[in-house]
Amino acid sequence: MSKFNRTLVTTALPYANGPVHIGHLAGVYVPADIYVRYLRMKGDDVLLIGGSDEHGVPITIKAKKEGVSPQDVVDKYHNIIKDSFEKFGISFDVYSRTSSKTHHETASEFFKTLHDKGEFIEKTSEQFYDAEANQFLADRYITGTCPHCKNEKAYGDQCESCGTSLNATDLIDARSAITGNKPELKETKHWYLPLDKYEPYLKEWILEEHKEWKPNVYGQCKSWLDNGLHPRAVTRDLDWGVPVPVEGADGKVLYVWFDAPIGYISATKEHTPDWEKYWKAEDSRMIHFIGKDNIVFHCIIFPAMLKAEGSYILPDNVPSNEFLNLEGDKISTSRNWAVWLHEYLEEFPEKQDVLRYVLTANAPETKDNDFTWKDFQARNNNELVAIFGNFVNRALVLTHKYFGGLVPEAGELNDFDKETLAQIPVLKAEIEKNLETFHFREALKVAMNLARLGNKYLADTEPWKVIKTDEDRVKTILNISLQISANLSTLMEPFLPFTAEKLRGFLNMDRIEWADVTANALPAGHQINKPELLFEKIEDETIQAQVDKLEATKVANELENRVATPVKENINFDDFMKMDVRVGTITEAEKVAKTKKLLKLTVDTGVDTRTIVSGIAEHYKPEDIIGKQVSVLMNLEPRKLKGIESQGMILMAEDADGKLAFVSPEQAVAAGSEVR
What we know:
This protein is an alpha+beta fold.
C-alpha cells in the first residue's frame, strides 16, 4: 500500500530562447506525460507541472542578436513552446512561465525567507567587467581561446569544441562578447548557498535512502558528494531576471538556477489555491522528470534550497534520461541541428503518436541513443502499421463483413482461446510494473505485445477460412479479437493517446479506466463503426525530404563556420603580370568518355578557339553551359587529359561544401577581354 495520497510531477523548464526539439521530448516530456496519464487512468490525484524558463543569459544573448528586448524573445518562444506541447498532447495541468508576476513574488519570498534565516553567505570576489558596456560579464558573455584544445571561440563556462568546463579566468585572451574589449577584473558582492552545510544530510538522504534511483542519477550524485560540495552563488550581476530583494543588491538578479526550480512552486500556486498540500504534506510525493544535464540541480541544489527553507517535501524520485542524438550527431539549438516539434506537427499532421511511439521505443533511458529518419519510418511501417494497425483493421473489417458490425457472441472457449485471453491481465501487470519503475521503453514493448498477441491469434485461427464451415466458431474468434482491440485502447492510451481515442471511435465505445481492463470489455450485440486505417505507411520520399532538410542545415553550418584557407606566399608584381586571364565563351561542351568529372569544352577566347578539359561534370550539365562566359587562364602549359590536349584552365570558385561556380563577368563583355 502506497504511503502517498497524491503525486506532483514536474518537468524541466525549457529555455524560452528557442522552440522544443525531439531531444527535449525524449528526455523529459514524453515519459512524464506517459507516467501522468497512467496515474490519472488509475484514479490517482496527480498534477503535471511545467513552464518556460525565461531568465538567464541565453535569453539576453538571443535578444541582443535579434535586436529586440528579452521580453520580446520570451513572449515569442513561450507561445511557440506552449502551443506545440498542447498540439502534441503533453497533458500539463498548468504550463506557466518564470516572467509571471506570481513567479517573481514567489521567488523573491523564497530568497527573503532564506536570507532572513541567515542561510546565505555574503561574499565579495573579482569578476570580469566590461567598462565600455558598463556591466559585469556573465560567463556566456566572455569568449576566448580554450587552454585545452585552442578553440578560439570558447565561452567563459565551457568550450563547446572539446566539452571542457571552464572558468572565465581560464580563457586565453579573454574578450567581452558585447564590445570585443578585453575585460577588467572588478570586485562585486554576491550571496552564496552553503551547499557544504547540507552535504551530510544529502549523503544520507540520497546515498542511503534512495538507492532505488536510476544508476545514472545515483552515480552522478555520488560523484558530486564524494568530491565535496562548496558554496554556490545564487545571485548574478544582470538586468534581466528576478531582482534580488534585499538592500545593497541594485543591478543584481537571482541566478537562473536558483530562480527556475522555484517556478515549479509558482506554477502550482497559479493552478490551485490548495498548492501547499502538493508541496508540503507528508503524504504527497514529488517526481522530477529531467535530462542528465540537470541532475545536480534537481538532486543536490534544489533539495538543499528546500531543506534550508524547511517546510517543503523533497523529491521522491528523479528519473533522468540520457541524451538523444540526431543522425549520429549531437542535437544543437545553435547549429539548428534538431527536429523541431512545431515543424514536425506541420509537416506530419495527425502523426503525433508516431513520434511519441518512436521516441519511447528508442528512449535514451540508460545510454545516449540516436534518432534517424530511417528508423522513424521503419518503426511506423513495420510496427505501428504492420502489427498494431493491421490487427485492429482485420478484426473490425471481418466483423463488418460477416456480422454487419455487431459484436458477435462468444461460444464455448477452447484452450487456445483461454490462453490468449489469460494473457491480457498478465501483460497489464507487466506494463504497470515497468511504468511504476520508470521503464517506459519496456512498458511500451509489453503493450505492443498485446497487439502481437492479437495478430498471432487471428493468423492461427484463420476466421476467413473457418467461416465456410463453422460460423459459430468465427463468432468466438472475432469476439475475442474485439476484446483485445478494446483493451488495446486502454493499455496503449498513456503512450498513444490520439490513437486510443481514434480506436475508441472505431469501436463506438467509452473510455475504460485502468482498473476496468477485462476480457469482456465489449458486450455481444454492440454496434461498432466502420473502421479506417489506424496508421498509414510513410513513403520513402517523405523521409528523404527530411534527410535533405538536415543535409541543407549541415551545409549551411559549414558555410557559416568556414574558415578561409590561409593566403599563399607573396609573389611579386612581375610574376602576377605573367598570367594572361581573359573572358571566353563556351561554344560546345560534352562529357569525356569513361570519366565522372571531366567535360571537354570548346571555348571562343576572342584570340582563337581552343579545347579545354575541365573537372566540372558533377556540377554542370553540358547543355546548360553553352554560351556561358567564363574566365580562362590562357598561357598555361598545355596538358593531355584522357588523350585530349587541354589548352588552358577555366577559373572556378569552390564553396565550403565543394560546390564549384564559374568566375564570370557580371555583364556580357567581348570574348578576349582581359581580366585585370
